[in-house]
Specification:
The complex is a heterodimer of chains A (386) and B (299).
Chain A (H helix, E strand, L loop, with lengths): L6 H19 L7 E7 L6 H20 L8 E7 L4 H14 L4 E4 L3 H14 L3 E3 L14 E3 L4 H14 L4 E6 L3 H13 L5 E5 L10 H9 L4 E5 L3 H12 L6 E2 L8 H5 L7 E5 L14 H16 L7 H18 L5 H8 L5 E2 L4 E2 L15 E6 L2 E4 L2
Parallel strand pairs in A: 1-2, 1-3, 3-4, 4-5, 6-7, 6-8, 8-9, 9-10
Antiparallel strand pairs in A: 10-13, 11-12, 13-14
Helix pairs in contact in A: 2-11, 3-4, 5-6, 11-12
Chain B lengths: L2 H33 L6 H18 L4 H28 L4 H27 L15 E3 L2 E3 L2 H22 L1 H11 L1 H6 L4 H27 L5 H16 L4 H22 L4 H15 L14
Antiparallel strand pairs in B: 1-2
Helix pairs in contact in B: 1-5, 1-6, 1-8, 1-9, 1-10, 2-3, 2-4, 2-8, 2-9, 3-4, 3-8, 5-6, 5-8, 6-8, 9-10, 9-11, 10-11
Classes of the chains: A alpha/beta (386), B mainly alpha (299).
């Protein structure tokens, strides 16, 4: 065709109109709050890190779908740390220094969180982590929080269940990471004198055979075994236990209250007892429990969005975003790291998925152990263990 | 549980894990002998054996035996392809000594590639297979063991016998031994070195995949399971005498038993440390390994 002399200006105007149309048609339309996130979506803790990543993404989307924080959307930048502490520090550095985030959520493995903590303190950036090691929040570090039930709470719940079931002699098999060690110390600190730990053996989180460890426990005639690891060993140990003819309860970390573990444990699943948040048994909760509606909503949204079973561990990620959303809203625009941090410590009665949060300057976790239950695996699904 | 029973329990555990180390070490031995290359992707062949079988059996719902056979063939093919596309091109027209280090690094690259591909295809979760003969433990003198263990040890021994037979009674096997003894002479005798290289990879991939298939019912398999297996198998090979077929077996069982007995009698925290300590002692006092690494087979 002949050269249309208004070709360029016309198309420029059109492009500009389209561009502004798209920009303004997106809600919310104000500048975003940029929040960084990391988790171990690959590596030995991937069972948990993957859902935690999903939970954080879902948390941000749920808030953005409801109009953001006073109209400002949350922009979530996520990096996988592969389960490795040094990589975790690297990606968090990247989030703070290159992506200029105002806060970091995540860290699905206690070892990684503890590695990041010194850096985040120096960088004076709020860090709501998803790990359960008690030492993450005790002693309190100014910028570090954790929204997971700590090992202290979980072991306390286990001890309560053991006492109720008359268990006196125990074998303790933690993995050789900070997480396992922290649980052992928490257990020893809280156990009554009626419970004795006769066997204490550690194992590597990539090991594949545990018959030596279980043989020792069996030889000591324990009434129950506590296993503290997340990753394949949690299931393999159960298979080994059944093969050794053991028929005692095996208490696990709350991190194993997720489908894959009992499914892979085969016949051994019936011996597993795990403390957990209330999501897996949300249907069995009383209607007046404020968590019931939140949990059922989460389950529905999660399944819709990710087409997989809703994991209560994933909900840790969502809770972290909700804690931030509340604090950021109270702190106001423009985002200020110190203000946000102060507001996190004023979180009161936030009905989350793990429990009801009451975060204070001396309690950077905010959960009570009553928000946990003990689960068992029965006929292909989780149920409350008496 | 009496001490003798405990000991028996540890012993059985050691034999089981030792068999796998033996198979991996065998794979290292075969490739090393034909090509002087240490194939660090050996652990991945074991992993793939397990993963491909899981895919065929679990996802495509083929019955177990065809899944196993098809899986061995697939992994053998992968081994041949790795050799053809990574080792063979680097080998052309070069003095062997100069390229060996390069080739070893290439195998490390191949190992990472296979690991990454496995992660993309099968995800990061561990996957399992059913045990071949049921879930009831066998009880022997009060020690309990998984019937799968019989499969593991039994099949390992069968693989070893087959490899020995192959190396001593078949033309291809004898040609491989000739190639490992003296490559120049072998070439003069009309042995196709390139074929030997490919055949050794095929054989080690096949045996590695068999190893993966037999342990997956007990230990589950993850996309990165090959790493530790390859490492431990390599140590087993060094302990027994690197490149020696019998040495691979001896080294595998020695390492397996040391690990289990160490974990059971001393402390499970030091399990790996004990095994590697023995490796260091062997390297210090008898670097050629228990049986010596001189020849592939003292036939």
């Amino acid at each position: 065709m002949k050269r249309f002399k208004y070709f360029i200006p016309l198309y420029t105007v059109l492009a500009v109109l389209i561009f502004f149309g798209i920009t303004f048609s997106q809600t919310p339309s104000k500048e975003p709050y940029v929040i960084g996130a990391h988790a171990s979506a690959t590596g030995p803790g991937a069972f948990i890190g993957g859902p935690m990543r999903n939970g954080m993404i879902l948390g941000a989307e749920m808030i953005n779908g409801a109009g953001g924080i006073d109209g400002h959307p949350i922009k979530l930048i996520f990096y996988d740390d592969g389960g490795d502490p040094s990589k975790a520090v690297l990606v968090v550095k990247k989030l703070v220094e290159e992506d200029k985030v105002i806060a970091v959520a995540g860290g699905s493995r206690s070892g990684n969180i503890l590695a990041v903590a010194p850096y985040i303190q120096k960088a004076e950036t709020p860090y709501v982590s998803l790990g359960a090691a008690t030492v993450i929040t005790q002693p309190v570090k100014k910028w570090v929080f954790a929204d997971a039930h700590t090992n202290m709470l979980a072991t306390r719940k286990i001890i309560e269940h053991m006492v109720k079931n008359n268990i006196k002699k125990v074998g303790f098999l933690p993995d050789n990471t900070a997480y396992g060690d922290d649980a052992y110390k928490s257990f020893m600190k809280q156990k009554p004198d009626s419970i004795q730990v006769l066997v204490h053996e550690t194992f590597g989180d990539k090991d594949t055979d545990f018959t030596p460890h279980l043989t020792k426990a069996k030889a000591a005639n324990v009434d129950a075994v506590v296993v503290w690891t997340v990753g394949p060993p949690a299931s393999i140990i159960m298979k080994n236990a059944v093969m050794l003819g053991m028929d005692i309860p095996f208490y696990h970390t709350h991190g194993t209250a997720q489908l894959q573990y009992p499914l892979l444990a085969g016949d051994g699943a019936r011996l597993m007892r795990m403390p957990s948040g209330k999501l897996p048994v949300a249907d069995e909760l009383a209607d007046k429990d404020p968590q019931k509606k939140v949990l059922l909503d989460f389950r529905r949204e999660y399944v819709n969005r990710f087409k997989e079973e809703a994991s209560w561990l994933g909900a840790h990620g969502t809770d972290a975003i909700w804690i931030y959303a509340g604090a950021i809203k109270r702190a106001g625009w423009p985002p200020n790291k110190a203000k946000i941090r102060n507001e996190i410590e004023k979180t009161r009665n936030l009905v989350g998925h793990n429990g009801v949060y009451n975060i204070t300057p001396t309690d950077h976790n905010g959960l009570a152990y009553e928000s946990m239950v003990i689960l068992k695996w029965e006929k292909g699904h989780f149920a409350l263990a008496e | 549980m009496s001490f003798e029973t405990q000991l028996l329990q540890y012993f059985i555990a050691g034999l089981t894990v030792g068999s796998i180390y033996a198979i991996v070490a065998l794979g290292f031995a075969m490739v090393y002998n034909a090509t002087k290359v240490i194939n660090f992707a050996q652990g991945e062949f074991v992993m793939l054996g397990g993963m491909v079988t899981i895919f065929l059996y679990g996802n495509l719902h083929l019955p177990l035996i065809p899944s196993v056979i098809l899986s061995i063939l697939v992994v053998t093919l992968i081994g041949i392809l790795i050799e053809r596309f990574t080792i063979a091109p680097a080998n052309v027209g070069q003095e062997r000594e100069k390229v060996v280090v390069l080739l070893i690094m290439i195998t490390i690259g191949a190992s990472e590639f296979l690991k990454g591909a496995a992660m993309l295809l099968w995800g990061k979760d561990p996957l399992g297979l059913p045990t071949f003969s049921g879930e009831e433990p066998i009880v022997l003198w009060n020690a309990y063991f998984n019937p799968q263990i019989i499969w593991v040890v039994g099949i390992t021994l069968l693989v070893v016998i087959f490899v020995r037979f192959f190396l001593t009674h078949t033309l291809l096997g004898k040609a491989m031994r000739g190639c490992s003894d003296n490559q120049t002479m072998a070439r003069l005798m009309g042995i196709d070195i390139k074929l030997m290289s490919m055949a050794s990879f095929a054989l080690s991939a096949a045996s590695g995949s068999i190893g993966g298939i037999i342990i997956t019912p007990m230990t589950l398999m993850t996309f990165d399971g090959g790493l530790m297996l390859g490492l431990k198998g390599f140590c087993a090979g060094v302990i027994g005498g690197f490149g020696n077929v019998y040495g691979a077996i001896v080294g595998g069982f020695v390492l397996g038993l040391l690990e289990s007995l160490g974990a059971g009698l001393i402390s499970s925290s030091y399990k790996d440390a004990i095994a590697f300590l023995c490796l260091l002692l062997i390297l210090r006092f008898k670097p050629t390994g228990i049986l010596g690494a001189k020849t592939i087979l003292r036939a």
